[in-house]
Amino acid sequence: MKHGILLVGCGRMGSALLVGWIERGFDPKAIVVVEPSQAPLGVQGVLDESNIPADFKPDVVLLAVKPQLMDAVLPPYARFADHAVFLSIAAGRTLASFERILGPTAAVVRSMPNTPAAVGRGITVACANRMATSLQKARTEELLSAVGEVAWVADESQIDAVTAVSGSGPAYVFFLAEALAKAGEKAGLAPDLAAKLASATVAGSGELLYRAGSPPKVLRENVTSPGGTTAAALAVLMAESGGLQDLMDRAVEAAANRSRELAS
Ligand SMILES: NC(=O)c1ccc[n+]([C@@H]2O[C@H](COP(=O)([O-])OP(=O)(O)OC[C@H]3O[C@@H](n4cnc5c(N)ncnc54)[C@H](OP(=O)(O)O)[C@@H]3O)[C@@H](O)[C@H]2O)c1
Which residue has the CA at smallest separation from atom 15 of ligand 1? Predict the structure, then answer.
């Protein structure tokens, strides 16, 4: 098998990737999924590593199990290290942690996707070790791009900041919708209506940002008339001290610090 994909773990993120590959026309016969708890749709699924067909030679082993399981799950897959690239999406698992188990000559790509991958609109940042060839990097990018955009960093330490911005970022945006709804209630709206307005505004603005392809600053300026209502709100949100930038700086710093603490 020249282009076989071995997907290890088919939970939320693994199944989002699998759906993306099938939708993009990848050959289902070239995919084997190892997943103990649920049968994957449309491809060959096995319950554990020992049931992988002997003649299946993946060119990519995609590791999509929980980070804390990786040390226990990974060792038997080291047998693929002579010809496959290992692509991990596990948060906090460093390239060195894979090399320790797979050996120093294993090709490894560490990546950090985010939850909009579930609707094909994620962004994943990837970082390769020295053993990964440019062809292998291109192949891993092809697989990751099935669920959204892909960017690369050469310096693995940047993954902490990436985690803090795009990995954890969707939660900040969801919280923005919650906070906007609460503020709407305080301004006199019924809770249901406030929640509906806030969620639709965040979702619609995200879609507009995506489709317009303009920087967010331009879109913001386009909807802000001097002396108007939006300008009044932005004067509060954009205050030099105690404004949203201040809070966001602290939030991202806290997440990046936590990412460094959790890395193994
Ligand atoms: N979800 C996200 O938004 C997100 C974002 C960035 C990174 N990630 C990373 O993606 C990885 C998967 O996360 P997830 O949210 O998709 O988790 P998940 O839904 O729990 O999926 C993990 C899957 O792996 C299965 N599994 C457990 N042991 C296994 C084994 N020995 N061999 C093969 N499969 C096994 C689990 O089955 P059981 O349920 O039976 O245990 C589960 O179906 C994690 O490392 C996480 O850090 C996720």
Answer: 12
pTM of this prediction exceeds 0.90:
yes
Could you tell me the sign of the dihedral formed by the alpha carbons of 106, 107, 112, 117, in that order?
negative
Domains and CATH numbers, the chain: 2-159 (3.40.50.720), 169-263 (1.10.3730.10)
- pLDDT per residue as tens digits for the range 41-56: 889 999 999 999 999 9
- Beta strand 148-152 with 85-88 is unpaired
CA of 40 to the centre of ligand 1 (A): 13
Q: Does residue 183 register a pLDDT over 60?
A: yes
Place of tokens 């993946």: 58
Distance 69 CA to ligand 1 centre (A): 9
- Residue 239: phi and psi, rounded to 5, are -60, 140
Distance between start and end Cα atoms, the chain: 33
Best probe residue, ligand 1, of 66, 68, 114, 174 (max atoms within 8 Å of C-beta): 66
Examine the pLDDT at 104 and tell me if it is beyond 60.
yes
